Amino acid sequence: MRTTLPLAVAALGLIALAGCGSPAEKPAAQASAPSTQAASAAPSAPPLSRVDLRPRVKAAALTAEDWTAAGNAGQPESEKVDPSASPRVLGWCDPRISSDDDILVEFERKWSGATSDTLGYGKSIAATIIEEAKKAMSVCSDYDRGTSKVSVASEFTVPAQPGVTAQHSYCVTARFDKGTTNSACFVILARDVPGGTIVSRTHVQSGSVDNAKEFLSELIPALAANITKA
Question: Fewest C-beta atoms under 10 Å: which of 96, 114, 168, 174?
Fold first, then answer.
């Protein structure tokens, strides 16, 4: 740590010099010595409450205008506040992660073939949520949902989105007992805000992974814009 000359010692030195010989010219004003005390960190924002988070979480969701702007037809089939008694950030393979317990608010807007879920957290930060989600993906390698088995179909690489703190994306395929399959791709965008974290998780379903990737890619710019403004 860089140290500075104590002001009291500096003052004594000036007095001693002034007492010797003829009076000297008045010295030019000196800049104040920098303080050696470290600046205290700004206080963290108080945690956001459910009431605080609810409108912000809804604002982060995909809108009907976003849907049609991407070339899709139809209005949302449903909108629900807190649709699940046990919300979680991962979909289809459904493993719970520690930060799921910190979800205070959930909003769901659903179309035929696509669902936009947005979540509000009180304490968990974006980096932790996404890291836990990535680690839990190993559960999806052969997850039994009762009527189907889900496996990770392929990686889904999404460029880093502006205004987003952390993100994750993946695709899965469900193989049903009757021999049919269905694929879905997910993108999870997480953004830290003062006092909490907002997460947008959107997935689309299609008969093939490639179609699901293309479908979802058209929606991602709007999702990133919405969570950044929320």
Answer: 96
